[in-house]
Amino acid sequence: MRYSIQKAAVMVRENIKIYLWVIVELTLITGVLVLADATHRSADREIGRLSEIYQDQEIYLIYNFLSEEYFGAGERAACGITLQDFMFLRERYSDRGAFQYYVYDHLSLYEDGVFQEMYLVWGSEEFFERQFGKGRMDFGSLKGYAGPGAGALLSGGDAMLVASPGMEISIGSQPDSLLIGDAEYRFEPADVSGTIPLSQANIIIDSAWCLFLPIEERPEGWGQTNIGTTLSICFEDFREAPELIQEMISLLIERHEGKFSYRHSDVLSDYISRAEAILNEIDLFSFIAKVCLCVAAFGIAGIMMILVRRRRKEYAISYAMGAHKWNICMELLFEVFMVCGTGSVLGCLLGFLLTCLQTQSAFPVQFSAGCVSVPVLLSLLIPLFTGIVILPDVNAVNPMETMKCE
Amino acid sequence: MITLSNISKKYQGRGVSTAALNDVSLRVDQGEFVIIYGKSGCGKSTLLNILGTMDKPTDGTYHFKDTDIGSLKFSELSQFRNRHIGFIFQSFYLINEFTALANVEMPLGYAGIGKGERRRRAEELLKMVGLENKMKNKPSQLSGGEQQRVAIARSLAAAPSLLLADEPTGNLDEKTTDDIMALLKRINQEGTTVIMVTHNVDLAHYADKVVHMADGRIV
Question: Which among B91, B95, B110 has CB closest to A3?
Answer without folding.
Answer: B110
